[in-house]
Structure prediction request, 749 residues.
Amino acid sequence: MFEILRRELMADESVVLNEISAPLIAEKAQPGQFVILRANETGERIPLTLAETNPTRGTITIIYQVVGKSTALFKSMKVGEKFMDVIGPLGRPTDIEKIDGEVVCVGGGTGVAVLYPITQAFKDAGNNVTSVIGARSKNLVMLEDRMQGASDELHVCTDDGSYGHHGFVTDMLKHALDTKDVRLVVAIGPVPMMKFCCQMTAEYNVKTLVSLNTIMVDGTGMCGSCRITVGKETKFACVDGPEFDGHQVDFNELTSRLQAYCPEEKQAYEKFKCECQSS
Amino acid sequence: MAEEKKKKESIPRQEMPEQEPKVRNKNFDEVPLGYSPELARKEAERCLQCKKPSCIQGCPVGIDIPGFIAHIRDGEFTKAIRKIWEKNSLPAVCGRVCPQEDQCEGLCVLGKKDKPVAIGHLERFAADYERLYGSGELPPQAAPTGKKIAVVGSGPAGLTVAGDLILQGHEVTVYEAFHKGGGVLVYGIPEFRLPKEIVASELHYLERLGVKFEYDVVVGKTLDVDELFAQGFEAVFIGVGAGLPTFLNLPGENMVGIYSANEYLTRANLMKAYLFPEYDTPLMQGKDVVVIGAGNVAMDSARTALRMGADKVRIVYRRSEAEMPARVDEIHHAEEEGIEFFLLTNPVRFLGDDQGRVKGMRCLQMELGEPDESGRRKPKPIEGSEFTLDCDLAVVAVGAGANPVLTQNTKNMQLTKRGYVVADPKTGKTMKPGVWAGGDIVTGQATVILAAGAGRLASNSIQDYLAIGW
Prediction:
């Protein structure tokens, strides 16, 4: 179980794709859901939203950026090696429906990996989908072909102008809001990106879904590590989410909760890098 | 006869050796060190072997207490453990974590004049002796019946059901959402109170009997109960515990540095964060820690914080000492280790810095009024008594509720208003045919032995069902 069947490096090798054997999860998983993975006995439980599932092959696909020890450890695993634990599918699936009007899917960084199956599902439900994906630079743009296939119209943005539109995804989001009858926006990416998208769509009064990648332990509603204020209520991203109405999410609280373990994360990552060098 | 009684009464209760408070509050090793065979036999000598033993009335699973104690007294340790196993499949655990003072020992007649027989210590001794020096011989098992039973959750209730039914010759598969078995015994109760090696040995014993464990399976998500029936299971037992943390719903509670006790203990225990960075899961190290609540979980959290290097740990509780729900031993251990108690104190909001990290708690002083529905005197605030308690870490340990992941994804399961499973208290039968439930998911947060007791009732009922039907 949980053997890595395929491994690809993307976006200048800073992003990794793993296709993992997990038949039970592949059979059940729906767009928007996540899994929790643990590499080995001493590992952390890391939540990652699924980028793809293939029930026929019995596989799930995750795409992640290397940001610390645990993701670096995941990256170090080769085809044929196994994750010790993969748990899921967890969280609520995206509510996919035929919307009366345009659906705009906005993705930034590895958020595009999470956005892709959701975009495809909206497309398959008969929606007209415009997508906007962004990255810092051309070499970091992810899943452009996939997103192209899942959308009626795709705009690519780069911060440095090396490819597509020179600027942020919010520019093209604004363009869509101004020119189309947009009824739903799905924004998935770094917290600042989601926050700015939501600020913009709030002005247009367009419903906006965001997917939150909070810190979790069990992923089944037992610990409250992933709690976040949505509206005036505390919600658990693992069981009530991971998707929420972006206009209700307290992004400042989310930012500070995501940074809760910065010193420990740094310590663990430095130690890991030293160990890798010495071995 | 009277002379013998007198002789027995002249033996004082044999205290169990413990690690020194100043040493143990810096390590995660077990605090009480266990009886030697000599101490155990001497303590067993104290038992009056009452003709109508009241201690048994106090035991939720009805262990023949004078019976097993007589075997220890006679040095027949294997017989002693077999006697306990007749009623309780988790003696090494229960000997350590049962609230004996409210159960068996609370009713021991010796306790009227002197201290009661140390029944919990003796139970622990019998189990530990068997684990360390026993033959490892498995009890006799009935011939295979070919019937398959699924157990959901590997805590005390589920393990009891698995242990009972495997001996009856059925095939038993236990599904566990976490990557390790034991439920609250591994994620909740700390190493210094219940070494994980003991839980692992209980699981290993069940594996040797043929119980299959399927980890990383969240029933309600990965699989559902009806799919288990479709896979050929004839009965399903649900013992998923009360895995939903209760928060205080106070302003500022989502700030960084405020944990639910569930999270704090799961990180420390299951994920072994106390061994960070050898283990990857971190746990914030507070210097000035407050724990809100005064049950066993609160004591476990406070003592964990101390071992994680806190300078100061305070228990904040809105009632008085008499109402504290923790075991007497746990309160005593916490006090000895240097935990401070802020009683009749109720937090009203959390204070934070500009980074969103907790730095204190506004509290009210309370006084006790008339008894409430729980029979305990209801605390009410003293006007104008608000004050600030500084802290850099807070753990909320005010109980747990029913986790909905399984129950909401199971058809035809009747639930109470608060989300617990409705089950017959005598049999564990739920309103869904073929499904039993027991432990905290039925009763709300309770004790290991009550969960084990519910497991025993359910396994008896499942056995009847497999023979004669629902």
Chain B has a mean pLDDT of 94. The CA atoms of residues 60 and 450 of chain B lie 6 Å apart. Chain B touches chain A at residues 177-179, 187, 215-218, 221-223, 243-245, 247, 249, 253-257, 259-260, 262-263, 266-267, 271-272, 276-282, 284, 355-357, 403-405 (CB under 8 Å).
